[in-house]
């Protein structure tokens, strides 16, 4: 079996990193085509042995990219095409249909109530998405919340399949030695109270609220990993609040580990150096950073996180949902600060979102899509790519514990 993954870009982002991690657990030959921006994740994929091709698309209206994409799919003779992110889903599903690909699956990574991947949900955006969705075989939602939004748009429920994002939890297992060395490398006092955040520095993530809250707590430090257009504004805000020495804007960091030379701590090491993790975003499609923080044994404060909010509270006892106000966040952080540092055992939700389990669920969706394709026989047994370990026979995913609708989606 041969699959092609088409994605809008391969800069550092949740969907891009999730694709890289997922391909490490897919027992088949997979190529990746990026429409634009072959950034750091492209290099990471290539280092994993994945073929990455840059289409060189110039913008949303670069219609000349469509015939190039059709030609590429035909030449590759792919059994299945899997698209990721809005532009890739629109162009990729149409190209796959024209090229005669056996089946087309799309993953919806970043659908909110009012935005999709940061762009406002205008009537035109929604209409174009729905028109292209009909050209595919199946649509994957990364959470029950996203699945409900898709169905609310008018995507037939039978076409929507929940396959949650996943992590390799062993990467985030807490180590006291890593904590001490990371604090030393980042210039943090050994006994300082350290608050953490991870994500794109964009207005929707509301990291300005987190900066204000930490600035209001004398002696507290903030480690904020990520980059984006708000970085300069956040640096200026920290200076205005007189907290520039305690607000550490670290830039992009590798979510899978330290840099190759070992000098730059990656996300797992940074989580080890933190005492509490905060996700102040008002809207999320999943909330992967929260799951990673829980895997590292951190208590978590979050405004919204479907990965947690869609489940019973017992699945993530270390996570606490808070409101959007700065004062409430300050009070919650002060409570953690006064209670003292404590590390928690990884909660059950961490096992639920194991990347190998997500890969098995996705293979089930592939089987359904291929078996339903016109003129397609039963899908062939996957051929392991060099360096991968064949997965056991895919089993039906466990029903979601959140509600019966989610359980039905998980069974499809």
From TrEMBL:
Keywords: Glycosyltransferase, Transferase. It holds the Pfam family Glyco_transf_4. Residues 374-412 are annotated as: Disordered. One of its GO terms (molecular function) is glycosyltransferase activity. Residues 12-168 form the Glycosyltransferase subfamily 4-like N-terminal domain. The keyword Iron does not apply. Residues 180-304 form the Glycosyl transferase family domain. SUPFAM superfamilies: UDP-Glycosyltransferase/glycogen phosphorylase. This is D-inositol 3-phosphate glycosyltransferase.
